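Internal ticket - ligand job 306, zinc ion:
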Amino acid sequence: MSNNTNRARQTKAQRRHDTAQAYGFMVGLFAFLMVMAVYFMFFHNSDKDSEAAELPKVINYNTQKVDLSDADARPADNSAVNDESSQDEPASSTPDESVSDTSENTADTSAAHESAPDPTGDHKLEVINGITYVDGIMIVNKTYSLPQNYAPGLDPVAEAAFNQMASDSWGDGVSLFICSGYRSYQDQEKVYSGYARERGTAEADKVSSRPGHSEHQSGLAMDINTTDYWFTGTKEAIWLEEHCADYGFIIRFPEGKESVTGYEYEPWHIRYVGVDVAKEITSKGLCLEEYLGVTSDYRYAPEYNG
Ligand SMILES: [Zn+2]
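stdout (C-alpha cells):
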C-alpha cells in the first residue's frame, strides 16, 4: 500500500520533472530563435556592393527618410560671388590620416575649393559658393567636393525627368524606381566613417565616397532600382543605358572608365546633366570627367592636399 503510494508519488514527481525539463527546453529554444531572429534582422550584414557612394542598407533607410521630400531645402541662389572668404584651416594631413577619424576631421569643407585644380583643355572652371562648375556643369567627384552645408534635396528638374523616364519605360515593360536619390553630407559622413572604421580608409574609398564628395549630395544623382551588381545586364539596366540620355541622364561611372572616374562601373548610378549634354557625352562614349577635362582623385582635392 505504502509502496504503491510511494511509487505513485515518485511517478508524479518524475512526470513533474519531465514536464519542467520540457518547459525548460521550450523556453531555451524560443530564446535561441529570438536571438537568431534579432541577429538576422539587425546585425547580419551581407552587403557586398561596391557602389561608389553607398552602403545599400543605409541607402534604403536614407531613401525612405530623405529622398524626394527635401526639395524645399534648396539654397537661395548660386549667383553670388566666389567663396573666397572662408579659408581658415587648410587640411594639412595626408588623405589617410585626415579621414581616419572622419567624424571630427571633416568639418571644414568651406575651404575646399580655394585652389580647385583647373581642367585641362579649353574648359572654364568656376567656384560659386564653394560649388565647382566646369562649363556651367556642376562637378562632384573625388577631386571636387560640395560644402558641408549644401543640402538642396533632390533636384526637381532631375526628379521630373526621372518620372517621365520611368513612365515611358513602363510602356516597354521596364520598371524603374529611385533606390537612392539625394543624400546629405551628414548621412554620407555616417556611411563613410562606418566603412572607414570597419575596413580602413583604403577599403572605404573603394566602396564609398568621402563626405562632401558624394554626387548624391548634389541632388542630381540617383541610384536606380538597386546598388548591387545583380542589376548588371538586366532588362532595366539595358533600357536605362540605352535611353537615359534622352531624358538628360548619363551613366555616371561607365564600364572601362574606372581609372578616370575613380569608381567601379555602376550601371545603376545616373547623373542629370540635361538632354543636350547627356546625348553628347553618351554618343561620344565619354565619362563626365573626360567631357569636362577634369580629374577625380582625392590627391588633387584641395582639402586633402592642403
Ligand atoms: Zn550612387
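Auto-summary: Residues 45-113 have pLDDT under 50 and may be disordered. The pocket of zinc ion is lined by residues 51, 53-54, 216, 221, 223, 269 (CB under 6 Å).
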